[in-house]
Design a protein that fits this description.
mainly alpha; 79% helix
Amino acid sequence: MKMALMILLAVASLVLIASILLQSGNSAGLSGSISGGAEQLFGKKKSQGYEAILSKITAGGAIVFIICSLILVAIE
C-alpha cells in the first residue's frame, strides 16, 4: 500500500507541475497589474474552455497530492 501511495504521489506531482506550467499568467508587467485588479473586481474571468479545465486539473492534483502526503506521514 505504501508503494502504491508513493506512485500516486509521484503522478500527482507530475500532474501539478504540468498543469501549472501550461496555465497562462494573469498579468503582463506593470500595466497588467493595474488593470488586473479591475478585471478581477468586475468578474472578467475565463470560466470556460482551456483555462477552466487546467484550473480544475490543478485543484484535483493538489487535493490528491495533499491527501497522499498526509496518509504517507500517518503510515510512518
